[in-house]
């Protein structure tokens, strides 16, 4: 997944804003959900003076009149005529009605923003607006599990991901349920500012910096009577990433056959066990690159990649950046 830099605008378009602060517009609309709106504001709009070049954020609307929200709450948003002044547009919610107005101002301006390279992410039902605009055509996307059947019926051209917390390709993203918007927002922050800052934001929110699993874990299911050996096996793997971990051994620790273990892993994470291990090792390597001056060979050993060549290979293949390039962009030891 490539790391994208904020879009740069001409100086005259940034009279009240430095070129280094990413400009975020949170799109408010009638009959919206307060939690999703509040989550977006908490992520991008809360003042964080401890960080340099934090986001410049506004709650925006294409309508000049006050907006009605849940429980009769009224919102006065900053009125805009289009989205050209923003690097990132967040759609916290949207109507799931069967007959949308495809040529509404919101649709026209969102499509124009995407064509100009603006990042666009949605929370929960906000994916319906992105899909109506054609921004998800041919791409993987998700929304809340309650809306999944309706979404798939209406948008057959979208590759629906049924059991993920969020999907984000660097420009366009959408999250599953309401709280999964926090996970997607943290991923945007992580790509913009690095793991250390994203972890600090998560800590302030009192949530996990990077949750595992998919939204199926939040659908009502019977409570297990005993702790899962599968989850205990994953905890062991996370604590021993520096070791040479054999997938057959993981299956044995989980008390499963290899075939059952592979099937369980794919159903839980939409990844193979080996792909999951690589992603966890990359996460650890990012943290080492940010927080230390250790040479690449040493970081490779600590994270289970064995040597710098393998580490560079996975960084370039999956993240679209070299380890040295990542360190130059995000390291706090510079």
Automatic annotation (TrEMBL):
GO terms for molecular function: DNA-binding transcription factor activity; sequence-specific DNA binding. The keyword Transcription regulation applies. SMART domains: HTH_ARAC. It comes from the Bacteria. Keywords: DNA-binding, Transcription, Transcription regulation. Residues 231-329 form the HTH araC/xylS-type domain. InterPro entries: Class_I_gatase-like, DJ-1/PfpI, Homeodomain-like_sf, HTH_AraC, HTH_AraC-typ_CS, INH-QAR. This is Transcriptional regulator FtrA. It comes from Halioxenophilus aromaticivorans.
């Amino acid at each position: 997944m490539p790391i994208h830099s904020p879009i740069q605008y001409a100086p005259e378009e940034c009279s009240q804003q430095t070129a280094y602060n990413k400009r975020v517009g949170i799109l408010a609309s009638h009959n919206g959900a307060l939690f999703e709106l509040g989550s977006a504001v908490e992520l991008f709009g809360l003042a964080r003076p401890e960080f340099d070049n934090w986001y410049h954020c506004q709650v925006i609307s294409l309508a000049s009149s006050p907006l009605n929200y849940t429980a009769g709450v009224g919102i006065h948003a900053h009125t805009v005529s289009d989205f050209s002044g923003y690097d990132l547009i967040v759609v916290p919610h949207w109507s799931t009605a069967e007959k949308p107005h495809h040529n509404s101002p919101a649709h026209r301006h969102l499509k124009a923003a995407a064509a100009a390279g603006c990042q666009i992410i949605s929370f929960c039902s906000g994916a319906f607006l992105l899909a109506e605009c054609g921004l998800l055509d041919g791409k993987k996307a998700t929304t809340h599990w309650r809306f999944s059947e309706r979404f798939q019926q209406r948008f057959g051209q979208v590759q629906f991901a049924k059991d993920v917390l969020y999907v984000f390709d660097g420009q366009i993203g959408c999250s599953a349920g309401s709280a999964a918007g926090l996970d997607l927002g943290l991923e945007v922050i992580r790509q913009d500012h690095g793991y250390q800052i994203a972890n600090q934001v998560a800590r302030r929110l009192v949530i996990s910096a990077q949750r595992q699993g998919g939204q199926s874990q939040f659908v009502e299911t019977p409570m297990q009577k005993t702790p899962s050996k599968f989850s205990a096996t994953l905890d062991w793997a996370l604590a021993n990433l520096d070791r040479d971990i054999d997938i057959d051994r993981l299956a044995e620790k989980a008390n499963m056959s290899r075939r059952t273990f592979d099937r369980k892993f794919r159903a839980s994470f939409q990844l193979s066990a080996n792909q999951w291990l690589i992603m966890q090792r990359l996460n650890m390597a990012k943290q080492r690159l940010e927080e230390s001056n250790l040479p690449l060979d040493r970081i490779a050993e600590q994270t289970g990649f064995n040597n710098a060549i393998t580490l560079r290979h996975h960084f370039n293949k999956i993240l679209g950046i070299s380890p040295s390039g990542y360190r130059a962009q995000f390291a706090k030891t510079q």
